[in-house]
Amino acid sequence: MSYLPIKQLLKAATGVDSPVGSTATVKGWVRTKRESKNAVFIALNDGSTIQNIQAVAEAGQLPEVTLKLITTGSCLSITGQIVESQGSGQAIEIKIAEVVIYGTADPEKYPLQPKRHSLEFLREIAHLRPRTNTFSAILRIRHALAFAIHKYFNDHGFFYLNTPIITASDAEGAGEMFRVTTLDAIKPPLTEDGKVDYSQDFFGRETNLTVSGQLEGELGAMALGKIYTFGPTFRAENSNTTRHLAEFWMIEPEMAFYELEDNMNLAEDFVKTVIRYAIQHCADDLAFLDNRLKEEDKTKKKEEQSELGLLEKLQFVINNEFVRLTYTEAIEILISSKPAKKGQFQFEVKWGIDLQSEHERYLVEKHFKKPVILTNYPRAIKAFYMKQDHEPATSPRGEVFGPTVRAMDVLFPGIGEIIGGSQREEDLDKLVARMQEVGIEPEAIWWYLDTRRFGTAPHAGFGLGFERLVLFVTGMGNIRDVIPFPRAPKTAEF
Ligand code: 4AD
Ligand code: MG
Hints:
Layout: H1 6-13, E1 23-35, E2 39-45, E3 53-58, H2 64-69, E4 75-84, E5 92-103, H3 119-124, H4 133-155, E6 159-160, E7 166-167, E8 179-180, E9 207-209, H5 214-224, E10 226-234, E11 247-256, H6 260-281, H7 283-298, H8 310-319, E12 323-326, H9 327-335, H10 338-341, H11 357-368, E13 372-378, E14 404-412, E15 416-423, H12 428-438, H13 446-453, E16 459-465, H14 466-474
Parallel strand pairs: 3-5, 6-10, 12-13
Antiparallel strand pairs: 1-2, 1-4, 2-3, 4-5, 7-9, 8-9, 10-11, 11-16, 13-14, 14-15, 15-16
Helix pairs in contact: 4-6, 4-7, 4-14, 6-8
The protein binds 4-amino-1,4-dioxobutan-2-aminium adenosine-5'-monophosphate and magnesium ion (MG).
């Protein structure tokens, strides 16, 4: 089995322990095969890095039958001497002494040929797309970000808490849940009044896939101080957009004794730190994606081209402070903006609306040109658990608007909302009153309310959509391209 990952081999080639002169075995998938008069060149990739290793055989060295089976996508084990490369583009190459073909890939049938494939086409072959440069780069970056997230929280004294995936509660109160049941789909047992009798279901009650681990996260924070979750999250909203998935991964830190300001400080430091980690540890992959984006930009109209390259954009985010303002201030800016005056927004701007992506993008991309944290949203458009502000919002002209809550949304260029969070209502009476207003039965989550009954404390937290972060860091345009096997309306192949 002994073989050297290509990443390790190429890295050693630049160090003092150069492998030149030694014999090594590499294993991987053929990206391209090129034949010249004197030699055969095989570019082999094993996924450890975006770089290929070039394997060279002399013309006539390999039997014709073997050579024929070495095609793009086939899998090989190659043993040979590591030598300095004659060609440009790589420092070393491997002189083939022995080839073992593990698996062939019939060029008539193998869908990934060495040419540019559209992202739409690659989505149809999601089982093979990790073998392309673009997707292997994305998946390595995704891994690095996941690792950086665990590292960040570990370094800052947080405990990783696993919250349930099957749940009987709707944490966001939005009713966008996937049901989990073992009842007969055609003839479920019914109650006397004709409803499905969930008391006969597996869990003896109606259960769903979780939309958020927050409620259980709060229980953890009220015992361990600082916790975070990092798990799959499910939303049955019928959003066919480039920013929504039906199954995505969310990171939810929850901290006892944190107020809104602390929550914002943590969110900002956290995203900057994990982005910095990716810049430091994924240089090759980011350079590849940066270049890919530049090439793609060349095919676009001038006004649609990005102002900053991918790496410049990432640097820009980690080197600038996020702008912080209230929802009410943002509404003022939007109302007096050019697009509002010219009637260019599709949705009218007024206090109380849920900001649409066109509004968020105006604030982030046009007005501030920086990531923005919006706070103190209208209570009516946010979840029941958010801490209520004492005073209603007022405009600079003294107009009094409705009540607000200590919410915070972090908005990123090209992405819109990347983080949503808040300080939590720790007062039992206020929380229960709000639940009753929005029609949530307090008894249904009696265990959640117990945190407010016993040793309640100020606390806060937020949720980062992992795929939205990966989308931002990789510069991709569609969230379905930053998760290995996307789940979206009418999409669950693989
Ligand atoms: O704003 P959301 O709905 O907040 C919560 O779920 C809170 N319980 C978080 C908390 O305070 N602990 O979702 C949080 C983030 C969003 O900002 C977005 O990045 C991401 O999750 N998100 C989605 N990502 C992909 N597809 C979807 N359908 C998403 N819905 C939310
Ligand atoms: Mg949100």
